[in-house]
């Protein structure tokens, strides 16, 4: 809808949304893998959550489209049923406490800049699942293994691991 110029806030627009730029997500995963002091669950989100209204405005600006067509909560529920409450109308404000404590350096902490960069790089729906322009590959953060080598290692380890024996025999 946004690309067609018919996007807008969902519900009252005050629900909080946590987000992270793709470049920061990859760098944060590499940081978590290489940083021995990080333990337990790590929230991969930007330091500043935004409201649905802020996100809508940033996306509209990046696409150079108006955002004047809101989707009222009742319309979201009609269209999406119970999923509307869980995915579109719920408010979640997550902090990256462990990343911040481990002094992770967020490169894209500003939503407007992150959305503009994503839109201008040529990403489209579905392209986040591996189909993207070669020019959109972010440079490898700092030194150390690249995201692709980490991906390959994780994938090969998970594939080569034998399934657990559920009978209790070693």
Description:
This protein is mostly helical and 170 residues long. It is 41% helix and 2% strand. The protein contains seven helices and two strands, in the order E-H-E-H-H-H-H-H-H. The protein has helices spanning 22-34, 52-63, 73-80, 82-89, 97-101, 111-120, 147-160, and strands at 16-17, 50-51. A two-stranded antiparallel ribbon has the order 1-2. The longest helix is centred in the C-terminal third of the chain and has 14 residues, at 147-160. Residues 127-137 and 146-164 have low confidence and may be disordered.
Q: What characteristics describe this protein?
A:
mainly alpha; 170 residues; globular
Q: Strands, helices and their partners?
A:
Layout (H helix, E strand, L loop, with lengths): L15 E2 L4 H13 L15 E2 H12 L9 H8 L1 H8 L7 H5 L9 H10 L26 H14 L10
Antiparallel strand pairs: 1-2
Helix pairs in contact: 2-6, 3-4
């Amino acid at each position: 809808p946004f690309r067609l110029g018919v996007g807008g806030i969902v519900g009252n627009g005050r629900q909080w949304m946590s987000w992270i730029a793709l470049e920061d997500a990859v760098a944060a995963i590499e940081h978590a893998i290489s940083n021995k002091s990080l333990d337990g669950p790590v929230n991969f989100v930007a330091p500043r959550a935004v409201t649905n209204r802020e996100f809508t405005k940033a996306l509209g600006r990046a696409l150079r489209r108006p955002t004047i067509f809101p989707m009222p909560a009742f319309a979201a529920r009609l269209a999406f049923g119970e999923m509307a409450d869980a995915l579109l109308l719920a408010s979640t404000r997550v902090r990256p406490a462990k990343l911040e404590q481990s002094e992770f350096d967020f490169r894209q902490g500003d939503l407007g800049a992150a959305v503009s960069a994503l839109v201008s790089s040529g990403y489209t729906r579905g392209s986040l699942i591996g189909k993207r322009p070669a020019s959109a590959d972010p440079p490898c953060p700092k030194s150390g293994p690249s995201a692709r080598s980490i991906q390959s290692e994780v994938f090969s380890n998970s594939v080569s691991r034998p399934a657990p024996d559920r009978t209790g025999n070693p």
